[in-house]
Amino acid sequence: MPNATSTENLQILLTYGDVALASSLILLVIFISWRLRLRLTSTLLMAAARTVIQLSFIGLILAWIFAREQWYEVLIILTMMTLIASGAAKNRVKRAYKGLLTDTFIAVSISAVLVTIIAIALILRVQPWYTPQFIIPILGLILGNSLTAISLTSNQLVNAFHEQQGRIEMMLSLSATPFEAVHAPIRAAIINGMTPTLNSMLVVGIVSLPGMMTGQILAGADPTQAVRYQIVTMFLICVSSILGCTLSALLIYRRFFNDRQQLILPN
């Protein structure tokens, strides 16, 4: 059974047995999948196994990084996180084109890194800046939400350019500028990318308690401090998401028009 500290600072420590008990609950999910013939059993098993393996692996790495606090090691971790997030965002776009990975990397890295720098330097004022306890979790939170927003925006916008090719070319023939011709799909794509973030902000604290806040409270932190951290992270995620969606849309827009302001469909 978990051990707890004094009631003044209650902290429940989970054992491997507790983790195994939680893992066994996946059997219920598998049973539902089998009973309803959802054909998700193999996916569920793979997802559960990857969850355990990936989180255990990153836990060992973070423990090592936290103990050493070397700036170059932290920088390597941050770079790897950004590259993996860029690849994940790219893979969610169904109609990929040459250069999509570069565009997603630019959108993800600029939006996430810029907002992380603001958080570390101006809000938290962490010294030194590469303190892994702060910069790695913050960048991870921002990247996770940014890649979702960017992938939703990119996927919808690329599909719109393909599906609305006739309408866009008609507007161009009627003397509309390229941006005027595609403003409506760009707007719709950015709104679509921002929807998950905005939905979370609208119900946070009423319907849901976000992960960072819940984790801090379970770890014994002062709830008021946990709330402040959560407010900060929600605003950081919102800014990063809108920056990422906008950059992604503009980069895709640039790819789909040539120097003669003609619509092209890159492969």
Summarize the structure.
This protein has ten helices and two strands; from the N terminus they run E-E-H-H-H-H-H-H-H-H-H-H. With 267 residues, the chain is mainly alpha-helical. The chain has two domains: 68 residues, no CATH class; 186 residues, no CATH class.
Summarize this structure as a short list of keywords or feature phrases.
267 residues; mainly alpha; two-stranded antiparallel sheet; 10 helices; 2 strands
Distance between the termini: 57 Å
Give the class from helix and strand content and strand pairing.
Answer: mainly alpha
How many β-strands, per DSSP? 2
Given as residue ranges, the uncertain stretches (5+ residues, pLDDT < 50) are 4-8
Give the topology string: H per helix, E per strand: EEHHHHHHHHHH
Q: Domains counted in the coordinates: how many?
A: 2
Task: Note the overall shape.
Answer: globular
Report the C-alpha radius of gyration, rounded: 22 Å
Mean of residue pLDDT values: 89
Q: Output the number of helix runs.
A: 10
* Largest sheet composition: 2 strands, antiparallel
Strand ordering within the main sheet: 1-2
State the helical fraction. Answer: over 70%
Percent of residues in β-strands: under 5%
Subcellular location: Membrane
Protein name: Iron export ABC transporter permease subunit FetB
Keywords: Membrane, Transmembrane, Transmembrane helix
InterPro entries: UPF0014_fam
